[in-house]
Amino acid sequence: MKYNSLNEANQAVIDKIVSAQPYLVDVVPAKSVIKELNGKVLLHAGPPIKWEQMTEPMKGSCYGAAIFEGWATNEEEAHKLLSNGEIEFIPCHHVDAVGPMGGITSGNMAVLVVENKDGGNRAYCTMNEGIGKVLRFGAYNEEVVNRLHWMKDVLGPSLSKALKLTDGGMNLNVIIAKAITMGDEFHQRNIAASAIFMKDITPYLVQTDISKEDLLAVTKFLADTDQFFLNIAMALSKAVMDSARTIQEGTIVTAMTRNGNEFGIRVSGMGDQWFTAPVNTPEGLFFTGYSQEDANPDIGDSAITEALGVGGMAMIAAPGVTRFVGAGGFDAAQNISDEMKEICMDHNPNWSIPTWDFKGACLGIDVRKVVETGITPLINTGIAHKKAGVGQVGAGTVRAPLGCFTKALEALVEKYAK
Amino acid sequence: MKYNSLNEANQAVIDKIVSAQPYLVDVVPAKSVIKELNGKVLLHAGPPIKWEQMTEPMKGSCYGAAIFEGWATNEEEAHKLLSNGEIEFIPCHHVDAVGPMGGITSGNMAVLVVENKDGGNRAYCTMNEGIGKVLRFGAYNEEVVNRLHWMKDVLGPSLSKALKLTDGGMNLNVIIAKAITMGDEFHQRNIAASAIFMKDITPYLVQTDISKEDLLAVTKFLADTDQFFLNIAMALSKAVMDSARTIQEGTIVTAMTRNGNEFGIRVSGMGDQWFTAPVNTPEGLFFTGYSQEDANPDIGDSAITEALGVGGMAMIAAPGVTRFVGAGGFDAAQNISDEMKEICMDHNPNWSIPTWDFKGACLGIDVRKVVETGITPLINTGIAHKKAGVGQVGAGTVRAPLGCFTKALEALVEKYAK
């Protein structure tokens, strides 16, 4: 190891996180930047998983993607295609991408492009579809598929044109720094960041050659989509954490993700390897007519935000979320972030949280501290119905399982004992 | 008195505050809604004041207004006109209006129109000009006057057209309720409310017939003006508090304002009467090159926000502001709001503050409690340079002087002793 100690290696990892310069630079068809998607291929959330093992909402998303791509005209055809093994699956994380909930991403879907101008690397994520019937939660009806087409044909190209008029893209560190003082934690609450994004992009949208009709549809969609920034936050988290992964040493968590069956983490010293354990099921508040019994087990790449130190780790920044996710009041929010700090190396000086007496967000989850304390990262998450086609039924919190951290620590011991 | 006790009267006053339904319904030339402005008349901030008594920044604003109206072509001509008594002055508060800092408002300036759909009354305020050289802080150069013309000719009419496409205007209770969870206190911090306002109005702006050039200029101005919502908050505070004034009994403060010399308050049981005492000078943080010595004494109608229970009263909602105004960290913010609660009747159930453990904003400043405790309202405020033409030099906090509350209490004792 080129570092004198694990602490020194870990410091190098978190230095990469702090020095990252993520910019939203474009929105493009996924297959134009992810070459693996030029075929009958779907990306999915979490560590590797086979079709047969997928939980229902992820399967529902696959139906929707197959219909969107024109590989099937209905659920039945899609099911046949998928069951016959005619579709290849790749984890988003293996191709510089992340995907919310099911994370199902196909070649013609529009993806956000976040470039880390410090590391030079890029990361991709589909755009937020809004609430209600949406692909990421396993819905796949006509409304869902039509929206995906509109996002590909209108929203994506419009934002792409607007972003090209900016000076090198939108500086996401700045938006995070502002919005973390405005009650966002960037997983279950992005209302401030989404509003800032819309406010900043609008004058550029106006300067493009898009039609008035499209400008109206785009601005209306952005105005109505309070979680629009979530997917930007995911792509930026991926871009930043992948930059941190280049250090290739140390005990810092560089990715956390769930495929509905398994929770997987990556650790700075262990490269691309996944350490997995069975996922927990989120608990929280449910929409009218639904209850805990309807909840699908934990799913989605969005826990990359917690790996970066926001989301549930930054609960104190967003006390409003603690009520939304059923986790209590202001004191509860503070207790959660204080607890999360126990498993982290430091505070991120870029993102000062006024409600935490101006301390920075959590920085660098250390596998050693997780195992030592038994405290696992808390994740704020949407809750999908366990049946395909229903969609989101609530929001809550869920703990990462200790098992994957224990496995990672064992592997690290083995590596560094050599 | 038709109430059985002062407490019952006060309850009626705060019930009016809570039941108010302020909507932003239009932006129009001031003289079209304030008939007194059809002549050589200027509105000013604070209780009544004569030209000779005005502090320099208010005088600077008068020069700018005279030039804007075409009554004078330069400072010299304006000064002559004003010194000769050719301009009549009326307090904004006497004609359903409020004005920031100098509060100088002339007939052709565009004003926001806020309608309280509960009381049916309306209130007016000029629009926020942004930062730097601006009329409200006493600057009056060409840039300032040109901007006022653009606001009259482009920004105002554009927003008016957009607002006419909405369903009865923009519901300001909703924006306040959202933004108070996002770090705004609506006096020195309006970044969230301004972003929400812009996000919500943009799709309507797009639907108007304004040119692409104007749409760009308007969206760019709104995107760049983080305090745009302040003036909306002022007009809504005025509309709400004027509705509360219809009760005409009790000991609740219904207006607080400053003209640079005197701090004036109105009290629910004493109708239109002003109770005044010499203003204090705000203390806080200064822009580079300026210091406390440059500060003009306290000025502006914006303390109507504190009368409503936000601004400095809601410091805990905006811990970021405590640093901006030099008042400390998170604990300081909490201490201030806890102290302010001691002089208020209740919490406003409409506007829950997550950082105050979800308690509502302060509601109903009781003159009796102010005098009894000696605690006077804390006001968050911009600081004008004491010389005309310079503009804003900082931001800070200032206390309302106890004297006006003591005078009001004496008058109330006299009234209710009969």
Secondary structure class of chain A reads: alpha+beta
Shape summary of chain A: globular
Distance between the termini of chain A: 11 Å
**pLDDT average of chain A, as an integer?**
96
Q: What is the β-strand count of chain A? A: 16
Order of helices and strands of chain A: HEHEHHEEEEHEHHHHEEEEEHHHEEHEEH
Q: What share of residues are in beta strands of chain A?
A: 15-25%
Largest interface (CB within 8 Å) is between: A-B, 33 and 33 residues
Unreliable runs of chain A: none
CATH domain class of the domain at 243-417 in chain A: Alpha Beta
Strand order of the largest sheet of chain A: 4-6-5-1-7
For this structure, the quaternary state is homodimer
Q: Counting H and I runs of at least 4 residues, what is the number of helices of chain A?
A: 14
CATH 2nd-level architecture of the domain at 243-417 in chain A: Alpha-Beta Complex
Highlighted features:
homodimer; 418 residues; alpha+beta; v583 fold; five-stranded mixed sheet; four-stranded antiparallel sheet; 14 helices; 16 strands; 40% helix
Could you describe the 3D structure shown?
Two copies of one chain form a homodimer. Chain A is α+β, with helices and mostly antiparallel strands. The first copy, chain A, has a domain at 243-417: v583 fold. Helix content of chain A is 40%, strand content 21%. Chain A is built from 14 helices and 16 strands. Chain A has helices at residues 6-19, 30-33, 56-68, 75-83, 142-165, 172-179, 191-207, 212-224, 228-245, 304-308, 319-324, 330-341, 367-373, 402-417; strands spanning 22-29, 41-44, 88-91, 97-98, 110-116, 122-126, 170-171, 253-259, 262-267, 275-278, 283-286, 299-300, 344-353, 359-365, 378-384, 392-399. Chain A has a five-stranded mixed beta sheet with strand order 4-6-5-1-7. A four-stranded antiparallel beta sheet of chain A has the order 10-9-8-12, with helices on both faces. Chain A is globular and about 55 Å long. The mean pLDDT of chain A is 96. The A-B interface holds A 178, 181-183, 191-192, 195-196, 198-200, 202-203, 206-207, 212, 215-216, 219-220, 222-223, 319-320, 323, 329-331, 354-358 and B 178, 181-183, 191-192, 195-196, 198-200, 202-203, 206-207, 212, 215-216, 219-220, 222-223, 319-320, 323, 329-331, 354-358. Chains A, B: This is DUF1116 domain-containing protein. Chains A, B: It comes from Proteiniborus ethanoligenes. Chains A, B: Pfam families: AllG (PF06545).
